[in-house]
Design brief:
Layout (H helix, E strand, L loop, with lengths): L24 E2 L11 H8 L3 H5 L5 H11 L6 E4 L1 H13 L5 E6 L4 H8 L3 E6 L8 H7 L4 E7 L11 H10 L4 E5 L20 E6 L12 E5 L1 H10 L7 H12 L1 H24 L3 E3 L5 E5 L4 H10 L2 E2 L1 E2 L9 E5 L3 H13 L9
Parallel strand pairs: 1-11, 3-4, 3-5, 5-6, 6-7
Antiparallel strand pairs: 2-8, 7-8, 9-10, 10-13, 12-13
Bound molecules: pyridoxal-5'-phosphate.
Pyridoxal-5'-phosphate (PLP) binds next to α4.
């Protein structure tokens, strides 16, 4: 009988929005509209035949990452995107019957990996003002909780947890692991990687997909205490990261000026979009990420569709907890943002302010 593992029945497939790119403005994937550092392109132009024909060697890139973050290489794992790091955490630590604390709404892969592993995913609702439910998470901590997920800044809510709140959870977590996903950290400028030295229950995941703009190459990384890394290494594929990603990652890490410029551009365009949307009477929420949220109320589905018909793709969040009536807009370059606004203004009847 070709039956999958029993736990598969409760897991969904991650919905990849394969809506194409031809003539489309894709503001639905939180990609980097400013591409990647020119130094990355240069590094890739200098690929050798061996880069293609030989298995990758991780050492020098891992050392570079470790040095950049001021930790030893024994605290680092590199992976095929942040998703692959997250998978490693679930594969190494979460087993059937374990409980996973997941603040919601949240990025989809935590729920999927948890369910595939047969864990009980305990959802805790963010607060109405989108702030992190610290007290609720603290109250839910018990010896049965294997993993507590914290995404900072959060996706899709765009809010941050304060350092004090994070420290509180880390010190109360006991033997539960805290999985801190810092996919969007550059946009707020604060990473907590140094805390892995103090908290053996902390695992931090980061990516090259957002500020660095290496999304298509798939490169992520994870930081934790050496004893956790030893377990995680067992579930990490031997060559999950290819030579192109290693070269690109190394060049990207060396060009921090590019990151500063991207962060500035995102802030400027976020500000521009907010101002324009607010002038149209549309409520927005600035986020500590590379996207913003806009509230269009009962017309969310219709406006999402209308934008799609006009070749502008955004993310419809209206079915998510706390986000009824909201759309998520990735911050684009000015020309794409203008086209998005033009498409929005073209919708009939015009979008009226929500009462
Ligand atoms: C919170 C969060 N974690 C992880 C990921 C996956 O990133 P990657 O492209 O590195 O797999 C995303 C992607 O958008 C995300 O939003």
């Amino acid at each position: 009988m070709r039956t999958p593992r029993r736990t598969m029945a409760q897991a969904k497939t991650y919905q990849i929005f394969n809506l194409g790119r031809r003539q489309k403005i894709r503001l639905d994937l939180n990609e980097n509209a400013w591409g990647c550092s020119p130094q990355v392109i240069e590094a890739l132009e200098n690929l050798s035949a061996e880069d293609i024909s030989l298995y990758p060697a991780y050492d020098s890139f891992i050392n570079q990452v470790a040095e950049h973050y001021g930790v030893g290489p024994e605290h680092v794992i590199i992976s095929n995107g942040a998703d692959d790091s997250i998978r490693c955490v679930f594969d190494a630590f979460v087993e059937e019957g374990d409980e996973v604390l997941l603040p919601v709404p949240n990025y989809g892969m935590f729920d999927i990996f948890g369910r595939i592993r047969g864990a009980r995913v305990i959802e805790i609702l963010y607060h109405d003002d989108f702030s992190f439910p610290v007290e609720e998470v603290l109250a839910a901590i018990s010896p049965k909780i294997k993993l507590i997920v914290i995404v900072n800044p959060a996706n899709p809510l765009g809010t941050v947890i304060s350092e004090q709140e994070l420290l509180h959870i880390l010190s109360e977590a006991g033997d539960s692991l805290v999985l801190l996903d810092e996919t969007y950290w550059h946009f707020v400028g604060k990473s907590y990687v140094s805390l892995i030295k103090k908290f053996p229950n902390l695992i931090i995941v980061q990516t090259f997909s957002k500020a660095y703009g290496l999304t298509g190459l798939r490169l992520g990384m994870l930081f934790s205490a050496a004893e956790n890394i030893r377990q995680l290494a067992k579930v990490n594929l031997p060559f999950a990261v290819n030579n192109l990603a290693l070269k690109a990652g190394s060049a990207a890490l060396a060009d921090q000026m590019f990151i500063q410029q991207v962060v500035l551009n995102v802030r400027m365009e976020m500000h521009f979009l907010q101002r324009e949307l607010n002038q149209m009477g549309i409520e927005t929420r600035a986020c500590s990420t590379n996207f913003l949220l806009m509230k269009v109320g009962d017309r969310a589905d219709e406006i999402y569709q209308a934008l799609q018909q006009r070749n502008v793709l955004v993310r419809n969040l209206t079915s998510y907890p706390l986000l009824k009536g909201y759309l998520r807009i990735s911050i684009g370059r000015r020309e794409d943002n203008l086209k998005f606004l033009e498409a929005l203004r073209d919708i009939r009847p015009p979008i009226a302010p929500i009462q």
